[in-house]
Amino acid sequence: MTRALIIIDVQNDFTEGGALGVAGGAAVAEAISALLTAHPHSYEHVYASRDWHDAEGGNGGHFAVDAEPDYVDTWPVHCVADTPGAEYHPALHLPETTVHILKGQGQPGYSIFDGVDASGQKFGELLIADGVTDVDVVGLATDYCVRASGLDALDHGQHVRVFTDLVAGVAPESSEKALAELAHAGAVLATSELVEQA
């Protein structure tokens, strides 16, 4: 068994004060950092995704262009590549060995499985190459990118745990629905207390 931590979109634009900030986003950044500090050897691999949208165009209809966003399929401009909003939240402290995954380059890209690493390798292929069988999913936002990433991980054949104390969502109702959907699909809903020092 090879376990990995998957950190979803803990970026400035998704935390308080950002273009699409969610309540509790900064606290999630701090708590993930505390987990990694307390358990530095619990994960053989750490992957962190970021939305990395193109500055020009609508990114496959993801950005509301010349219309009001519906906050379901279309959104205000956010996480544009190489801007402060796309950077990790300053409270998120990642190991040097973290593999960084960029997604949403010209497209919506909700799931980390839509992303690639620095060499252009697709995330799903990377998991296979690294021999990962089990993943713990944390980050933002519960009801969108965490949901999509967790479901895709299950489809990929991973054993998935979602740490409910290390996620935050856009809205309580849709976040609860997303967690229920993940559980129904086979994910284990747990808290980070399950992580043990290796």
Automatic annotation (TrEMBL):
<dbReference type="GO" id="GO:0046872">
    <property type="term" value="F:metal ion binding"/>
</dbReference>
<keyword id="KW-0378">Hydrolase</keyword>
<dbReference type="InterPro" id="IPR000868">
    <property type="entry name" value="Isochorismatase-like_dom"/>
</dbReference>
<dbReference type="Pfam" id="PF00857">
    <property type="entry name" value="Isochorismatase"/>
</dbReference>
<comment type="pathway">
    <text>Cofactor biosynthesis; nicotinate biosynthesis; nicotinate from nicotinamide: step 1/1.</text>
</comment>
<comment type="similarity">
    <text>Belongs to the isochorismatase family.</text>
</comment>
<keyword id="KW-0662">Pyridine nucleotide biosynthesis</keyword>
<dbReference type="InterPro" id="IPR036380">
    <property type="entry name" value="Isochorismatase-like_sf"/>
</dbReference>
<feature type="domain" description="Isochorismatase-like">
    <location>
        <begin position="4"/>
        <end position="193"/>
    </location>
</feature>
<dbReference type="InterPro" id="IPR052347">
    <property type="entry name" value="Isochorismatase_Nicotinamidase"/>
</dbReference>
<dbReference type="GO" id="GO:0019363">
    <property type="term" value="P:pyridine nucleotide biosynthetic process"/>
</dbReference>
<keyword id="KW-0479">Metal-binding</keyword>
<protein>
    <recommendedName>
        <fullName>nicotinamidase</fullName>
        <ecNumber>3.5.1.19</ecNumber>
    </recommendedName>
</protein>
<dbReference type="GO" id="GO:0008936">
    <property type="term" value="F:nicotinamidase activity"/>
</dbReference>
